[in-house]
Design goal:
This protein has about 210 residues and is α/β, with parallel strands linked by helices. The protein has eight helices and six strands, in the order βαααααβαβαβαββ. It has a six-stranded parallel β-sheet, covered by helices on one side. Helix 1 packs across helix 2.
């Protein structure tokens, strides 16, 4: 029986069809280009090639290129007003209310981004706690230590916790630590993931 649910934030609590993803990717490419002194197109290419070995673009830039100003990175990638790119969903709050177990957010974004998005969606009060990338010392999903740190803070066994995310390797990372996982894949981008998959957060009740 599921005793707690961990939700990813972006492309999970709101649909991947929102403009937010392309906006964030563009901002990450712009920052990477400026930081490395290369054009934005070259930055996009190298970022796509290198980041799969890490959890995030930030982690890659820190590990391989000496980035130390994480706050500056977050300020560029997640500026004030970004939340306007997401449509409000009046059905989301009642749906989350119907999930009668403690709910948490586990995101590789910073808290300021999470606060904006949750407020925009009108669900900031739905969660016991938000675990952001700073909580995990800037090394978040899919790494085992970040999963273990979050689970220790929650105080629930991973085997009795359901994790919901739109990234297959993040879901698999949670499963590898003994937890249950569901992939949100709105556009069937990952048909060969081998994971339990839904197209919308509203299909989650089948796994609770």
């Amino acid at each position: 029986m599921v005793q707690a649910v961990l939700f990813d934030l972006d492309n999970t609590l709101y649909p991947a069809s929102a403009a937010m993803e392309s906006f964030i990717i563009r901002r990450m490419n712009e920052y990477t280009g400026r930081f490395l002194g290369i054009g934005t197109e070259d930055a996009a290419k190298v970022r796509r090639e290198q980041t799969p070995r890490y959890g995030t673009t930030l982690e890659w830039l820190m590990a391989e290129h000496g980035l130390v100003d994480s706050d500056g990175y977050f300020a560029w990638v997640h500026p004030d007003g970004e939340e306007e790119l997401i449509d409000q969903d009046p059905a989301l709050g009642p749906f989350l209310d119907s999930i009668r177990v403690p709910k948490f957010v586990f995101t590789n974004a910073p808290m300021e981004h999470a606060d904006r998005i949750l407020a925009r969606l009108g669900i900031a009060g739905q969660f016991e706690r938000v675990f952001d990338i700073r909580f995990n010392a800037l090394r978040g999903k899919p790494w085992a230590e970040s999963v273990d740190r979050v689970m220790s803070a929650i105080g629930t066994e991973a085997a009795r916790t359901l994790f919901v995310d739109d990234m297959p390797r993040y879901v698999q990372g949670f499963i590898d630590r003994g937890g249950q996982g569901v992939l949100v894949d709105q556009f069937d981008k990952h048909p060969d993931s081998g994971l339990q998959t839904i197209h919308s957060i509203y299909e989650l009740t089948a796994y609770l």
